[in-house]
Amino acid sequence: MSATEPIDTHEFPLDHEPVENWQRLEPAASAQEDSPTDRTLSETTTAFAELGTIAGAEYGLWEMSAGTMRDVEGDEVFLVISGTGRIEFDEPSRTDIELAPGSLVRLEEGMKTRWYTDDAPLRKLFIAPGEDGRVAPSPASDGQRALRQDS
């Protein structure tokens, strides 16, 4: 993706694969009774597409079918662009997060989560540190820091 070639994040094709065995989660494991219980374990799928990098940060799309799964998170911030659901936290203990288009969420490395998707697919645009774990500051950031120091 480039600045002169935008993409439609709703229509960008993603290839789904079943979640890994360790990610499978019984729908009844939810603390809430309105979990999607009509999905079998093998039906939950996810898809991923890395779209590019900017200043050392990776960005891309991730999508989950209707169903449930567990995950161990990496550092990221994401914006839900379609679908609804929620994230429940096993470790550290946190309040559940309801997900809907427009939800902006920050996850930290090592968080243990459970994902429940209701209106599927749940699609998010994510930004995460690059492979080396660092994000390079942009030239604008350096200039803004200099302005703040002069104030």
TrEMBL record:
Q: Domain (S)-ureidoglycine aminohydrolase cupin spans what residues?
A: 59-125
Q: Where are the transmembrane segments?
A: none
- Organism per entry: Brevibacterium antiquum CNRZ 918
What name does UniProt use for this protein?
A: (S)-ureidoglycine aminohydrolase cupin domain-containing protein
The biased composition feature labelled Basic and acidic residues covers 7-19
- Spans annotated as Disordered: 1-20, 128-151
Instruction: One Pfam family, please name it.
Output: Cupin_3
